[in-house]
Design a protein that fits this description.
Elements lengths: L2 H14 L4 E5 L24 H14 L3 E5 L9 H10 L3 E6 L6 H9 L4 E5 L5 H8 L6 H15 L6 E6 L7 H10 L3 E6 L22 H20 L7 H13 L12 E4 L4 E3 L5 E5 L5 H6 L1 H13 L6 H11 L1 H26 L1
Parallel strand pairs: 1-2, 1-7, 2-3, 3-4, 4-5, 5-6
Antiparallel strand pairs: 7-8, 8-9
The structure holds S-adenosylmethionine.
Length: 360
């Protein structure tokens, strides 16, 4: 993570109300078929080309975006992913690639680093290969081992980065979440986890597949307080848990009550760009606007557009997506910023003591 760019971005958002981050979908195609995910189910295949991505990136820069998460579908399916990273990086934005890691060879990683990639997030939900393959919907991949070895490679090749392992927290992995956090921490990786979002009916939404087998059972719910207590304890001890205490509390509350209403800043502090350039307030609230529209920047800054976004936010039923909640908290709440600094301090202290112990 480019800390300077991030701090500058936080100041710009706080003082001048500029958007801070954007999720940038380069494709909806995926090489996996995860049961809880709806992204790969979209059949639309048209994607922006490099020239169009360059135009979009320049507009995002103009609006004030300092941190871009390049995602999909599976972004490494794009043959021109290195060039895409380079476009954002050349414009001075901090870049993170969110991937399942299946196509991330050492050679590809070297090229991405050379293109200016700052950080990588890799998905992993369990240490059990059979279970991970079941979640990913493809047999005999040994996906858990693959994700772990890719995380090791990334953490070795990008020692100054914040490598994240994204865990979808659900019935499938509730009994190993603590072990998973500890194993990932030992690889110098920051585990983050988000409670699974599910739909009650079959739906067209990205992160809301109807997949009851992921739902927490009554028995799971009984264990939840104890699990979160342990996570808070690990965070205090300096394990690499970047999720803020506030988000952890919100996650526990969401799991227990299903209440996902919150005061979000979608469109204002963050937005999503889909593969054809469609502008969306977040993963769920799409609009008819496109970042490639000639007058998009002026439109975005207009009072009418701000009112439209406010109206859309008010209508939304809410979500528990970490990237959005954490961004809002980070920029709106000094306590969450402090929590972030405290976590980094505790992690550094623990790493220092571990190294000293190891040397002795
Ligand atoms: C849709 S994937 C796209 C990027 C890339 N293919 C990957 O696997 O990381 C992004 C993340 O969303 C998570 N995800 C998918 N469905 C979800 C759901 N219903 N609730 C919460 N997270 C979900 C995935 O596990 C993954 O970590």
């Amino acid at each position: 993570m480019d800390n300077l760019k991030i701090i500058k971005g936080i100041i710009n958002s706080k003082l001048f109300g500029k958007p801070f981050t954007s999720k940038f979908y380069v494709t909806r195609k995926c090489n996996l078929r995860c049961g809880m995910c709806g992204v790969w189910k979209h059949t639309e295949s048209k994607e922006m080309n490099l020239e169009e991505i360059k135009i979009s990136a320049k507009k995002m820069k103009k609006l004030g975006i300092c941190y871009v998460v390049i995602t999909g579908g599976e972004p490494l399916l794009r043959k021109d992913i290195v060039e895409i990273v380079n476009i954002f990086s050349n414009l001075g934005m901090s870049t993170r690639l969110q991937t399942n890691g299946l196509l991330l060879t050492e050679e590809k990683l070297n090229k991405l680093i050379k293109a200016g990639l700052n950080d990588i997030t890799i998905s992993i939900d369990t240490l059990d290969n059979k279970k991970q393959d079941e979640i990913c919907g493809i047999k005999s991949l040994n996906m858990s081992d693959k994700a772990l070895s890719t995380l090791k490679l990334v953490s070795k090749k990008m020692p100054k980065s914040m490598t994240i392992a994204n865990i979808v927290f659900s019935h499938k992995n509730i009994d190993e979440i603590i072990k998973l956090i500890k194993v990932l921490d030992s690889l110098d990786v920051w585990p983050t986890f988000c409670p699974v979002s599910l739909a009650e009916e079959s739906s067209n939404q990205l992160f809301k597949a109807k997949a009851d087998c992921f739902s927490f059972t009554k028995k799971d719910l009984d264990k939840m307080e104890k699990i979160f207590k342990e996570i808070f304890k690990l965070k205090k001890q300096g394990y690499k848990i970047s999720l803020s205490s506030e988000y952890l509390k919100q996650s526990l509350n969401y799991i227990k009550t299903k209440n996902k209403k919150w005061k979000c800043d979608a469109g204002k502090l963050y937005f999503v760009i889909f593969p054809r350039g469609q502008f969306s307030l977040c993963d769920d609230v799409e609009t008819k606007y496109n970042i490639l529209d000639k007058d998009f920047v002026e439109k975005y800054k207009s009072k009418k557009f701000k009112n439209f976004m406010k109206h859309s936010r008010n209508k939304c039923e809410g979500c528990i997506y970490g990237i959005f909640r954490e961004t809002s908290e980070l920029i709106n709440s000094p306590l969450v910023l402090f929590d972030r600094f405290l976590t980094i301090f505790r992690v550094k202290k623990r790493d220092f003591l571990k190294n000293k112990l190891f040397k002795n």
